[in-house]
Protein 1
Amino acid sequence: MQKPASYRPSMSRRWWLQHQHFVLYMLREATVVPLVFFAGCMIAGLWALNSGAEAWVSWQAFMANPLVILINLLTLAASLFHAATFFPLMPRVMPIRIGAKTLPVNAIVGGMWAVVAIIAIALVAYFIWRA
Amino acid sequence: MMKHHIAKDEPLWWALFSAGGICFAMLVPAAILVFGLLMPMGIIPASAFDYESLRGLGLGWPGLIFAGGVIALPAFHALHRIRHSCADLMLGKESVNKVWAYGLASLMSLMAVGVVLVNLF
């Protein structure tokens, strides 16, 4: 039997530049690029801890490189942008019901931001307390 | 009748992507703030990051949570998105992209979790 010739619509690689929403979509997809860099930094940190005091100090020096700080500032912005696009989706995909009432979207989104803030404040406070 | 191809492994990748997305939004900002900004900029004094005491923490149980929540799961989240972005931009072959994307995420996870586990046990 002969295979039917399939129809393949031609599509440009720049399709996402044609609409503001597509650009925003691609920008959100791109937030993971600095995340991979940060994860790599953290792996190096754990390995430095494993190697010894000297490796730890040189890892700290690497993290203090102005370019690395700049990329990590970008990573922080990327993670917050990811959160801002992700949190409003959660209560729509998985509505939380208490009895017959559905929790309002804003309450859940606010709650999720509160968790982000609490974890950040707790970690910063812990390290300030250690100092 | 059309035969549908069912990828049995997709639920696993999606679960890792999803869990990693929550970690990326909730745990990663705190980690970047402390280790990417406040430590290197000297805003939190260096004595907080003293090697001797941080080694036990980083390569102990808190380190295991860190390796899983800040490194391994976000790595799977990131590489899943990169795989799909490659498809969006028609780059490479999907079957090949899958291998390097999840392969790299697995390697990163193994390097992070492994170094902690070796010290824990």
Note: Residues 87-131 of chain A form one domain.
Protein 2
Amino acid sequence: MSSPSDGGHQAGGAGSSGRRNWLRASLFGLCIVLILQPIDGDGVWWDAARGRAIVAGAVAPSAAIQAGDPCGEADWLGGLLWYLLIAAGGPTALMLVRMVGVWCVLAWCQRLCRRCEDRVSSIAGTAAALVATSPGLDPTSLWWDVAGGCAIIAWHAAHRDAGTSLGRRREIGSFLVAVAWANLGPRSLLALAVPGVAGGQRALVLAGLCLTPRGPLGLLDSAWMLVPPLEVVLREGGDPGILAGHAIGGPAPCAIQFAAWVVLGSVALLRCAYSKPGAMPVLPWIVLHSLLVANPSSLPALTPFAWWLAVGDIRPSTPTLCPTGLRGLGPPAPVGVRGAISRRHAAYGLATIVAAVSLCAATGPWWAVPWRLGWGLSARLEYRQLVEPLTQCGPGGTAFAFDERTAGMLAWSQPDGPRPWLVPRRALIAGRFVAEATRLAELRAGWDMRQPALDGSPGGWWVPLMSRGTRLILIAATDTAAIRGLEPGIFKPMVIDAPVVPFARAGDPASSPAILRGIADRILVEDGEWAFAPPQPAWTDWTLDLCGLCTGRPDPRPLLRQADVLLAMRLPRAALKILLPMTQAGLADGTSRLIDATEQIAETERLTLGAPSIFRAGVLERLRARPDPESDLARALAAIHGDIRRGSHDRTMIAVDEYLARGPLVARESLARDEGDASWSIAMLELEAGRPVAARTTLETLSTDSDRTLAAAAVDMLDRMTTSEQPR
Amino acid sequence: MRTPSHVVVLLVAMVLAVVAASWLVARPPAIVMPGIVTGIPGLSAHERSTAASDSSCIECHGDVVAKHRASPHGRTLARIDAGAATTLATARRDDDALGRFIERDSSAWFEHTQRVAPLPVQWLFGSGMQARTPVTTWLDPDGRTVMLEHALSWYPPGFLDATLGTEAMQSRGGLAACGKLLDPETTRACFGCHASLVPARDGRIDEGAVVVGVGCVRCHPGGHLHATAMTRGGTDQAAGEWKRLSPLESIRACGECHRRDDQLPPEDIRPDNTLIVRFAPVGLAQSACFTRQSDHRFDCLTCHDPHGAATRRAAATTERCVGCHGDASSSRKCSSAPLTSDCTTCHMPAVEVQPHLSFTDHWIRIRPATRSHPGE
């Protein structure tokens, strides 16, 4: 890293060298950690499928692989490179993309601030830029937006530094960068946002942005990506319910990314305020933040511009670099250094913070940093479990898959199968985002048939989906509301343990075998001889959990997702089979999910036995559950919890403590078999331990109990187990 | 150097903007029901309720509204009151095995030996033309509305007997012995077919704001906009005109509550499946009268006026049949019986699915002329 070239705060001596080394080491470590993050972008398979369509000859690849898309697309080439990489080296070859991206961002930052005297600010800005752009460096369309922003800024900066006047070479370069960006990335309109560009050159950039199959309409598409139509928000009376939960054109940023953005934004403000009294980068600063609020998924694409305002050497050698008048500025003063924090403390503090962020990113997931050291593709992108059931569906029809990950898995794995309907990005461009998002909201609410919406539009997802020949509904495993909403309907899950749950219509002959297998799996995990043990850290041909291999602890996120799916499918015992061992092993805090599962069981007991069992009530007491106070369960529990606190059920509570610490098999030994309520709990614990034969024996004894309610419940449970055991 | 105040202001604004962005990202997806949950600009909760009721229609369509209010569609859902409680409590039944209804403090309750405490009954589903089924609602642990469809229903002229589909409840324990438990999504769907407005958020139904009965807007969506436009002197034509629908669209529109043919697995749609006789649009969609219609339009409205009760007069029904099949030279003329006989006896017989409950089989086809059993 170059030394400051002019006056100001000169660093010197061994201390300064030592601080620089610490800073470099911490930054280098951060880069390594960010490279070694599994590919997790939602659009990976979608963009790869688009690239494959290009190779097959399509000019509008999205329209070629999905149904209902009436528009061409500007960024038609965005997936080509990713497809070629996969074809050449398999999915793990995509890690090269990430590696190149991280190093390029690092080199870009360091190159452009090489004259910055304040190393602390430049390192802080570089680290913040790396963190903020990291998820955008996965091989998706967002990668091109990050690259395009870096390229256009670097091009302008390079020519400014060389003292080149507004010449032909600079204009042509800008034009070419704009053309490339427009045909590769969806947010190419940002190319116009570089500060200090003259009007004529902007016109040339604008012309370059129009050189796509969409022509000038590509500008509108890009604008929608940056600022989704506000009428979507206004239509809902100010409640941004539609946009919330839909990450359009990129992943939803995590807390650490927002923190990095705050760093950049703060440095930009403070820096420019100190540089010249009264001078503020008001307009570009406000525009950037407005774009962030409009579509938070654009954060990685906006980061180069935010960095440029914060740390880049924006001293103009030519006028009009910044329209707000930052002309002829001297070197920026260090942030907050004067009289407050010494340079030494700032340097070591920064190195510590960067190291801490690196450690979190390597050993996650944490609340603010959901990253984890690994290689290859993340478990969320594993589609191979879906291949067999989806292949059985055969060709024809369409699929509802309103996000790029699920639609991409279908389009990539089943090029001849049912075609996904509009993904969010395409729906936005086609002006159908509200309609499709509403369909998803209706799926989540179980609102299938048409009921009058008072704005004149009909509600209900059945008619629209059936009118376009929907044979499949693909729901991400994290969308438990949709899974729960589909439960009572005619669409049934074909697979219950994949990152995406495919639902097919019962009665569709092609899908019936897979549906039946799904039903058998449900019975097995809930009431059958299925027991769970925490898996070994993932090591497959696609995925390598480096953090897990080093620590011996697997990534808990797929397990928690699976538990959520089982809870949504109303399979609480199956969920407990996963959650309890996980919690006991300290892999994750599954308390809230344990409460949900136990509440489901307690509610079922309340409905069948007249009251929750004392055992389950005791579990909820220990877990400090707080069901809805207006619910009948809450009222029923209140009475039992009062007794527990008075010491009326000490023996049962011993069993509860054993259950939470050591599992169901140990807990059942502490319960008295001669008490009806306890016997029922024993039977349920035996089911939870994957021992249906033992549970059956206990239930058969209960079926002759003098308590008619208990006996009837036992008979009912035996009938259910018998039915599920019958061959299909 | 003292930080300029405007820097501080912009810093604060920036942090707020980032917080706003993170809130947009982090909040869980809202369940949005356009116009019902979040409302539409300019409509208060009261106005929304008014729009869903027929009060905005009565000014211009008084006769139809009055007729409709008395029709089965208009009476298909009711809150339990003293009269209904008495009716339930005094209805006859053959045995007490399924429990009994009692009246207490002008409310209805259900007692069962499998359950310690009686259950409150809040709703009656059904117009009473065929049956009325009591329903109990409560909140599940997540605060969502669930319901129990009681195993005992009221049948005219005053019997209590098993609700269709709940015959196996006797062997079950606890609350399950009293009826069929329905999850929140199904609960909302049940209310949705028996009401004109079902305000619900996050699965919790605001039962006090439910607009009972299948009102005007239920079949004529956007009717309140039409009323508003007409009040202002506009020329907006009627919303949701059914004659603009094709025959298939028309019967499927009815089928959104009475069951659509595309809602059932294909293997369930067969002549010997008596379970589908209660789904009139399903049977009608299979009928040759429907599938081969040409010069005469044939759909549910051919025989039924949804603003009134379904006619039980054979002569009225036969008149419709004769409209297509009455030409002596037509190949569609009935060869077995004179045209003055009741066509439905043979071609649309009533099928008893359980004691006290029978449905007209709308799968119009040629079969032996028996009143109770459809031909093979």
Note: Residues 5-26 of chain B form the longest helix (22 residues).
